Amino acid sequence: MLVLLAISLTCAALYFARDLFILLFTSGLFSFLMLPLCNKLERWKFPTWLAAMVCSLLVVVVLVAVGWFLAWEYSTFGADLPELKAGLDERFKDLQDYVRQEFNVNRRQQEEWAEKQITTLTEEGGTIAMGLFSATGQVLAVLVVIPIFIFLLLLLRDKFRTFFSQLSEDHSDAILKVVVNCADLSRRYLRGVLTVMVILAVLNSIGFMVLGLKYAILLGVTAAMLNVVPYVGPLIGSILPILIALITKDSAMYAAGALGVILITQFIDNNFITPKVVGSSVSINPLASIVALFAGGMLWGVLGLVLAIPITGMLKVICDEVTGLKPYGFLLGEERTWPEEGLIDIPLLRKKRGKPKTT
Predict the structure, then answer these.
(1) Closest C-alpha among 161, 147, 183, 157 to residue 54
(2) In this predicted model, what pLDDT tens digit does every residue of 314-332 receive, in sequence order?
(3) Which of 156, 146, 177, 191 is nearest to 20 (CA)?
(4) What percent of the chain has pLDDT over 70?
(5) What pLDDT shows up at residue 142?
(6) How far is it, in rounded angstroms, from Cα 172 to Cα 34?
(7) Number of H helices, E strands in the chain
(8) How many CA atoms lie within 13 A of 353 on its CB side?
């Protein structure tokens, strides 16, 4: 009962104070990522405040560069929307002819059905647009404040280290050890994810360029960025290249080729790139990952989908270090066998292993 109450209160706090928690978690992840550089700058005789400022400014430069690149690419894409709309209308007419020939449904019936669907989408569009606008505003607000939080977290890291050390009543630094492990996990995960994103952006862009698709670089980068969200991201990232291929090319084979590029890069990523680059930095089983994604999306929206996996990985680290929570860490992880000491004492297993010899 107490566990359910604690979970309910935690979820309520995460939902109603989501803006603060998103800001803290995002800033913490980037702070952990920049911590080695900050330490190196201090070894080079940089003052602590200057090292922290350099790291926070570096994050700003990277974010601004990525934002400028995407804005420039999407502005070009937006300028071609009338041409794309004309191509879409042409493909829609071809689809209507195919439906009329194969299913004996005339164009008027098809148009009536399409108008009903458009009306439904229009009614729901206001809610969807408001949700997207809110999410976009939330992201921009977080991006503005993140560098300040990164600077302060790096500047005051010695104070935080002393605070967590003093929390351990037996002076064993157990809490500090958990924080250090979480920092190491998040750093390895974020560094690996960014590396995978760059590799996939290059591979996708090359594949789309070979096919001769317009906006090849934009499509490749977008698909790579969406790959950050497990399971759902790659599926969404494959839709836009296929649509562009269908609209701008005369043959459907180009759309099949775009899908083939996504499938090949996903195969390479899942079997070679991610295992080597990211490794087992976040050892979360698929069921726990899916549940975490749903929970993150419901609580924090789009940013919750991005932060769900690293936060769940940190939660597993905490459960693995706290004796009373080890069963929950085992449930979240990818372990396929029980630990040697055993989390549960089952008589049947004890009988199969045999009784210990007594002297």
Answers:
(1) 147
(2) 888 888 887 778 888 888 8
(3) 146
(4) 76
(5) 64
(6) 27
(7) 14, 0
(8) 12
